[in-house]
Amino acid sequence: MPDFYEDTKIATAQFSLRIPRNFARLENGGVIPSARGFAYWAGSATMPPQPHAKAAPAEVDLMDLAQPGASFLVYDKRYNGPLADPGGVILGAATPTLSSIASSNDAIVIAGLPAGYVLSKGDYIGWLHGDGRRSLHRAKEGATANGSGITPEFEVRPLIDLGTATGLPITLVKPTIRAIITQEQYGAGRAVVTPGASFDWQEKFR
């Protein structure tokens, strides 16, 4: 059920990049951080209180999504497109693509945008790999497309996966990642109202 998150009413949500790391403390009090794996997106969501009858369908969906192998698509519901173009009205029918990737894997160029299109620091940028994997990044700096619809090179985070191909279609409005549920809580109730069910999720790479 890939549209579970899109179709579910959410009262509160959390969506952030998790960066696994270790911290070594030195005798002099200094701290040395080190990477402990790949960065990944993760978060949580809580549904609003509802009458029992209206809460039931979402509870069954959570039961299904908690099964091993199940997954769904998730995006940051705080944003409905680039900050300068909520909903993608200006983007319209344009089909932006990943034009180039910096050798440092921390910056990209996007082509196929409307002339003068503005990307702002914090905008989400996503693309789908040929093998079905999804990548999600945020602009570390703003960029404006030239008259040909091509941006200057601008930095994104997290770093881009090695081997990412250029030419991939870019999604700027509600770009998603595939996720799995890691913990869920539902079924509590009082009188005729069910308190909002909640769940935690994390990115699924494969």
Annotate the secondary structure layout.
Elements: H1 4-7, E1 12-18, E2 21-25, E3 31-35, E4 40-46, E5 50-51, H2 52-65, E6 72-74, E7 97-101, E8 107-111, E9 118-119, E10 124-128, E11 134-139, E12 143-144, E13 154-157, E14 170-171, E15 177-185, E16 193-194, E17 198-203
Antiparallel strand pairs: 1-4, 2-3, 4-17, 5-16, 6-15, 7-8, 8-13, 9-12, 10-11, 10-14, 11-13, 15-17
Keywords for this entry:
206 residues; mainly beta; six-stranded antiparallel sheet; five-stranded antiparallel sheet; 2 helices; 17 strands; 9% helix
What do you see in this structure?
- Helices cover 9% and strands 37% of the residues.
- With 206 residues, the chain is mainly β.
- Strands 7-8-13-11-10-14 form a six-stranded antiparallel β-sheet, with no helix packed on it.
- Strand 10 and strand 11 form a beta hairpin.
- The longest helix is centred in the N-terminal third of the chain and has 14 residues, at 52-65.
- The mean pLDDT is 93.
Helix content: under 10%
Shape label: globular
Roughly what fraction of the amino acids lie in strands?
A: 35-45%
Number of continuous helical runs:
2
Low-confidence stretches: none
Spatial strand sequence of the major β-sheet = 7-8-13-11-10-14
Q: Roughly how many Å apart are the termini?
A: 17 Å
Average pLDDT level: 93
Order of helices and strands: HEEEEEHEEEEEEEEEEEE
- What does the radius of gyration come to? 20 Å
Please identify the structural class as seen in this structure: mainly beta
